[in-house]
Amino acid sequence: MLIKIIHYIKRRWGMVNCKIGAFVNLSPTSHISCSARILGNIKLGKSLNIQRNVQILDNVSIGDDVDILDNVQIRSCGFFIQIGARVLINRNTTLLNQVSIGEDCLIGPNTTIVGGNHLYKNRSAPINTQGNESKGIIIDNDVWVGANVVVCDGVHIGKGSIIAAGSVVTKDVESFTIVAGAPAKKIRER
Ligand SMILES: CC(C)(COP(=O)(O)OP(=O)(O)OC[C@H]1O[C@@H](n2cnc3c(N)ncnc32)[C@H](O)[C@@H]1OP(=O)(O)O)[C@@H](O)C(=O)NCCC(=O)NCCS
Fold it and tell me: Cα(105)–Cα(122) distance, rounded to whole angstroms?
């Protein structure tokens, strides 16, 4: 127990540049970069690997054994983002608004998963004055999202599916299928 406490204090001590909210609970088995920012109503699991310049902001829950690599931004903007256990989120990826990622998923680098859209129907007002809507994105367990993918709001990606590199996912993806392209279409089953 004493060793655990010393380990915890050392880690906090080493994180002088790291911005971590006062009520964020850190497990002693997690590695969190000094340059990470973790602020808001954040629930963190055990044994996390959170690398350089990662931002986790607002209302976010992250399961155990999750890896979040350099420059990833996870920001719920007043909604809720949930990430299951044993997920890997690769470099430069962005998760915004309302997103739920199941367990054992791989999310490739430079990927954008934004559970929201700007409203745009009124032609006489600029789009940036019309507000936003969010249906939310759901990614089930064991999904592999390749590099440079965009997942649009309202999409449900079924269990065990694969999203090929560079795809733009605009419609639901059935379980255990592989989709590719912009817009993403089924290329075959797994
Ligand atoms: C999806 C993927 C796994 C499929 O690999 P595969 O099973 O070997 O499939 P194939 O290469 O045999 O391709 C099957 C068909 O899909 C097409 N295809 C494959 N990947 C594609 C892509 N990213 N975009 C568009 N079409 C693609 C192929 O051109 C081929 O078409 P054809 O039948 O008309 O010739 C792979 O192409 C991929 O995108 N991997 C992601 C790599 C990545 O992003 N890594 C980052 C680290 S997480």
Answer: 38
Exposed (0-12), middle (13-18) or buried (19+): which is 53, by Cβ within 10 Å? middle
User: What's the pTM?
Assistant: 0.91
As given in the structure block, the two tokens for residue 111 are 């990927």
Predicted confidence (pLDDT) per residue in 15-58, tens digit: 545 577 766 777 888 999 989 999 999 999 999 999 999 999 99
Amino acid type, 27: S
Q: For residue 102, give the amino acid letter.
A: G
Taking the CA of residue 146 as reference, the ligand 1 atom at the shortest distance is 44
Ligand 1 atom 20 nearest Cα: 164
Q: Is 143 in the pocket of ligand 1 (CB under 6 A)?
A: no
3-state secondary structure the chain: CHHHHHHHHHHHHCCCCCEECCCCCCCCCCEECCCCEEEEEEEECCCCEECCCCEEEEEEEECCCCEECCCCEEECCCCCEEECCCCEECCCCEEEECEEECCCCEECCCCEEEECEECCCCCCCCHHHCCEECCCEEECCCCEECCCCEECCCCEECCCCEECCCCEECCCECCCEEEECCCCEEEEEC
Mean pLDDT, residues 117-143 = 97
Which has the closest alpha carbon to 102: 79, 82, 74, 80? 82
